[in-house]
Amino acid sequence: MGPLHIASTVKTPEIVFQAEDQRLVLSGRSIPENAVDFYRPVLDWAQSIGPDFKLTVQVQLEYFNTSSSKCLLDLFKRLEQSDALEVQWYFDADDEDMLEAGEDYDHIVNVPFKFVEIDPEA
After folding, report:
1. Which of 7, 12, 51, 96 is deepest in the core (most CB within 10 A)?
2. Which residues have CB under 8 Å from 64's CB, separation 6+?
3. What is the pTM assigned to this prediction?
4. Residues 81, 63, 36, CA angle at the centre, nearest 5°?
5. In this predicted structure, what is the pLDDT of residue 14?
């Protein structure tokens, strides 16, 4: 499994696979003009994950649009085959929409989700 790093922009999140921690981190805003093109390298990378590969996916997005939502669902569906996968879904304590989005994914895919509340004042 090769490294993965996509730098953030004003409209796209930073995406980093940290091999030493077996962690995929998505952070920032996800409002790309073409979400399918932006997420294609990540989805291709996820396709190479084997069922025994241990991976933690940390989703630390402050906001994402509808087309990004579809790509996130595609990512989770591709990672479902891994028996050693956990999604850590971060959300601000005062952002019910982000919590509900994570709960929706949790109900759709067969992947364990852990919800991590962060204090926006901290």
Report:
1. 12
2. 13, 29, 30, 31, 72, 101
3. 0.92
4. 55
5. 97
